[in-house]
Structure formats: structure tokens, C-alpha cells
Amino acid sequence: MSEQSASAAVNIDITRIMEMIPHRYPILLVDRILEFVPNERAVGLKNVTFNEPHFQGHFPRFPVMPGVLIVEAMAQTAAIMVVQTLGKEAEGKLVYFMTIDQARFRKPVVPGDSLHIHVQKTKQRGPVWKFKGEAMVGDTLCAEAEFSAMIMDN
């Protein structure tokens, strides 16, 4: 196992996630962090279930997870990566969206899917971080986007 692989395998659970970011049900969209490489990348997990409130109105006869929520899950995974990377320095701070570019939705995400959210830092300047995100179900790319966020005091 390479050094990078050893540092990538983590298990940050929902309790720790709620300590790191302020989001709560129904907008908390990351159940667990499966991989983490400080200052580089993270993989989050979202188990998509039919009892989530957006499915009542987002095509009830063919429930599809809204694309904006998939992008939000990418942003939350990135925020967790930022907070975990910065440690104590990030406590009490919020990570805000600044831009969303090149968003593409390739395949619907439906109840029963396990959505793996891959985010990679592409650039950082001061409090501004830029990322590339991909949302996968199995080996299938469902959505992708480039986005930037700023970490700020709460």
C-alpha cells in the first residue's frame, strides 16, 4: 500500500461531520467520508433514500435527486475536506459557495443509490479554494462540476 493510499483511507462518520459543518437534516447531504488526503482530495458518501423530502415533489412518479442537491453534496464534501485539512484553525468558520462552473448532469440519481462524491482541490489562494467534483454511482459518472468556495468566520 502506497503512502498516499494509507493516508486516503478514513472513516469520518455523521457525528463527526456534524461537528465540522453546520448543515442539518434535511440539507445535510453527506453521510460519511470514505477517503481523505489532506489538502488534496476527499470522497464522501450519500445514501439516497426515498423518504427524503425532495422526492415528494421532484417527479413523484419517477423520483430523481435534484441536480442542485448533488452539487451541494459536492460542496459539503469539499467543506469537510477544508475543515479536516485546517484542523483547529477552521473551527467556528463556514465555507461558502462562490462559483459553480461546468456543471454537467449525466445520469439520474434515484432512491437506493449510493452516491460517491469525489472532490479534488485544484487551487487555493488565501481563504478561496477551488475544486473539481464528480458524483458517481458505482462506475457511472452521474454529475460533475467545478466550483469555488471561501472559508469565513461564522
From TrEMBL:
Keywords: Cytoplasm, Lipid A biosynthesis, Lipid biosynthesis, Lipid metabolism, Lyase
Family of this protein: Belongs to the thioester dehydratase family. FabZ subfamily.
Subcellular location: Cytoplasm
Source domain of life: Bacteria
GO cellular component, one term: membrane
Protein name according to UniProt: 3-hydroxyacyl-[acyl-carrier-protein] dehydratase FabZ
Catalytic residues identified in the record: 58
One of the GO biological process terms: lipid A biosynthetic process
InterPro entries, per the entry: FabA_FabZ, FabZ, HotDog_dom_sf
EC number, as in UniProt: 4.2.1.59
Database matches in PANTHER family: 3-HYDROXYACYL-[ACYL-CARRIER-PROTEIN] DEHYDRATASE (PTHR30272:SF1)
CDD domains listed in its UniProt record: FabZ
Molecular functions per Gene Ontology: (3R)-hydroxyacyl-[acyl-carrier-protein] dehydratase activity
Pfam assignment, any one: FabA
EC class of the enzyme, as a word: lyase
Reactions catalysed, as given in the entry: a (3R)-hydroxyacyl-[ACP] = a (2E)-enoyl-[ACP] + H2O
Function according to Swiss-Prot or TrEMBL: Involved in unsaturated fatty acids biosynthesis. Catalyzes the dehydration of short chain beta-hydroxyacyl-ACPs and long chain saturated and unsaturated beta-hydroxyacyl-ACPs.
Organism: Micavibrio aeruginosavorus EPB
TM ranges: none
Metal-binding in keyword set: no
